[in-house]
Amino acid sequence: RPPDLCFIDGMHLFEYALRDFMNTERRCAPGAVIVLDDIFPNHPAQAERERRTRVWTGDVWRLTEALRRRRPDLFLMTLDASPAGLLLVAGLDRENRVLQDNYTEIVRQGLARSGPPDTVLERRDAVDPCSERFSRTLAALKRLRANGVAPRETARRLRKA
Predict the structure, then answer these.
(1) 102 vs 91, 99, 141, CA distance in Å?
(2) Could you say which DSSP state residue 128 is in?
(3) Is there a contact between 33 and 61 (Cβ–Cβ < 8 Å)?
(4) The whole model's pTM is what?
(5) Which of 17, 31, 34, 106 could form a disulfide with 89 if both were Cys (CB 3.0 to 4.6 A apart)?
(6) Strand partners for 45
């Protein structure tokens, strides 16, 4: 059976996280959710592509920006979870090929940035996973899934929730 919830915590490099996301989305059940780990490095040294710290997120932080730019149809919620944050993604569309068709260009653009912006290091706009906002989002997601709402409509309604 196709998975309903997938957790991606892989190679800690942007291109691998992007590939994991693309392949997972293609296999997910309708209404599924993907959660990605390591999107918020606590220090620029943790965000480097080559590991030189005990705690290391690599450059997975680049994926959030790439998804926002290339897949505005998705619902993205950054979570201020310890130690390195999470990205919740809903409104998945198994048929969407934007990322696959533009993979090389997305990786090239993503790697062009030298390091994580302050918005990433400060976890700006990240949601507390213990907050009412997060609880409302989960409740809305559960209702939308139970009602078989289409991916684009799911993302639109979650943004309103």
Answers:
(1) 20, 5, 29
(2) P
(3) no
(4) 0.95
(5) 34
(6) none
